[in-house]
Amino acid sequence: MSSTISIQPVYSREQVDTQSIQIPAYVYASVFSSLCIAVGLIWDISWHMSVGRDGLLSPPHLVMYLGAVVAGVFSGIRVLKTSFWGNSAEKGASIRFWGIFHGSLGAMFCIWGAFAMLTSAPFDDWWHNTYGLDVKILSPPHLVLGLGMIMIQFGAIVSVLATQNNFDITKNPAIKSRLQVLFGLSAGFLLVMAYIMVSEFFFNNKLHGATAYKVAAIVFPLLIVSISYASPYKWGGTMMAVAYSLLMAMMVWILPLFPAEPRLSPVYNHITQYQPFHFPLLLIIPSLVIDMFVDRWRISSRWLLSLGLAIGFLAFFVPFQWFFADFLNTEAARGWFFGRFSWPYSSNPDWEYRFAFHPGSMDTGWALVKGLAIAVVFAVLSARIGLSFGNWMSQVKR
Fold first, then answer.
1. Which of 43, 82, 19 lies closest to 255, judged by CA?
2. Of 74, 307, 325, 369, which is the most exposed, with the fewest CB atoms less than 10 Å away?
3. If you count DSSP H runs as helices and E runs as strands, how many of each does the chain have, helices first?
4. What is the DSSP string of 1-32?
């Protein structure tokens, strides 16, 4: 059976403003679900570094599944209520799916994401029992799980955007403040997810090579620029980077407070506490630059703006991260704050490049210049796509 989505006429802002302004419960639920997914995923990585193979109902998995259930249930209730008990105004301000269901685009994404995540759980357990322990990261069940996570987190952002785009939030400062916080949090949690997906390029011993910065140029301008452009607030991209940084850093600070021991051999590095994941990249500074560029030259040629955003991002990301990576290799960074003591139980603690840059991932001279020039091209294209996507998000009202 083919799936069709039809869009009903949107009621004007004046008509909507006559209603009492409130943030629907499913919007709060979707942002909470996005947080559960980000926390559960970081915890799951730490679990693999500290304990080993996890079961279907391991604590990190339960946190992620909680996010899926909350997003699916609250969004599902919203869709069912609008579809079967909603008035014509509520149905008119929603999208129609399969000719029966009416709901917001964000709620639909959350429902689809929840189904994907919960479907992947028994599939993943069967896969491991059949083919072995974590044969590869990008196994079919992991791809389904990752797709579901991204859909829920994107659904959270769209839900917040649709809510604030439908109301004149300047007339209600309390609602504006709440939506601003929800927007920054939901965007930051998505940035956490995106970082985790490419984190293998950002191990500290690789941060003196051009490859890491080429990957950064592909991923981060797209996300930060789109959020900055879609944001009704001046510092949208910066709020995203702050939320990302706080969550990543808090997981570095909190996880080692709890005991953990390896349960899967071989054990080369005996540990007694959780080994935390990465300290956040220094994305706040380039995000500030992107927000200022977008605010100043929003109506300029998008290609010229993309060029400025790309150069601004790399000019303030590469040198700061480059020298910060130097610092993270020093003894001063091995305390609790930066978490550089972290090391998987299955890795040799005396590896010569544990606190040094790997020569195979270092670039100097012309190789570095050439690599960064390519990164500029990637960043321009990434920023340009981000501007188009941000423009679409700024108009979402369902």
1. 43
2. 369
3. 12, 3
4. ----EEEPPPPPHHHHHTSPP---HHHHHHHH
Domain ranges of the chain: 17-197, 201-398
**Per-residue pLDDT tens for 336-359?**
999 999 999 999 999 999 999 999
Q: Tokens 């079967």 appear where? A: 84
How much is the pLDDT for 393? 87
User: DSSP class of residue 334?
Assistant: S
Task: Please give the full DSSP string across 296-324, using - where no structure is assigned.
Answer: HHTTS-HHHHHHHHHHHHHHHHHHHHHHH
Beta carbons within 8 Å of 247's beta carbon, 6+ residues apart? 35, 38, 39, 42, 188, 189, 192
What whole-number distance in Å separates Cα of residue 117 and Cα of residue 68?
Answer: 7
Cβ-in-10-Å burial (0-12, 13-18, 19+) of 381 comes to middle
Rounded to two decimals, what is the model's pTM? Answer: 0.89
Task: State how far the alpha carbon of 394 is from the alpha carbons of 228, 275, 353, in Å.
Answer: 10, 40, 45
Element holding 95 (H helix, E strand): strand 95-97
Three-state DSSP at 274 gives coil
Q: Which of 32, 59, 33, 65 is nearest to 44 (CA)?
A: 59
What is the helix, strand, coil percentage profile of the chain, to 5?
A: 70, 5, 30
Amino acid in the structure at residue 236: G
Surface-to-core class of residue 95, CB atoms within 10 Å of its CB (0-12 exposed, 13-18 middle, 19+ buried): middle
Classify the phi-psi angles of 132: left when phi > 0, otherwise alpha if psi is within -120 to 50, otherwise beta. Answer: left
Residue with tokens 């679900």: 33
Percent of the chain with pLDDT over 70: 87
**pLDDT tens per residue across span 250-265:** 999 999 999 999 988 7
Tell me the two tokens of residue 347.
């890795």
Tell me how far apart the alpha carbons of residues 103 and 87 are, in angstroms, rounded to a whole number.
12
Q: Which two tokens stand for residue 373?
A: 């020039």
Average pLDDT for the chain: 86
Residue 124 CA from chain centroid, whole number: 22
- Name the 3-class secondary structure at 97: strand
pLDDT in tens, 318-337: 999 999 999 999 999 999 99
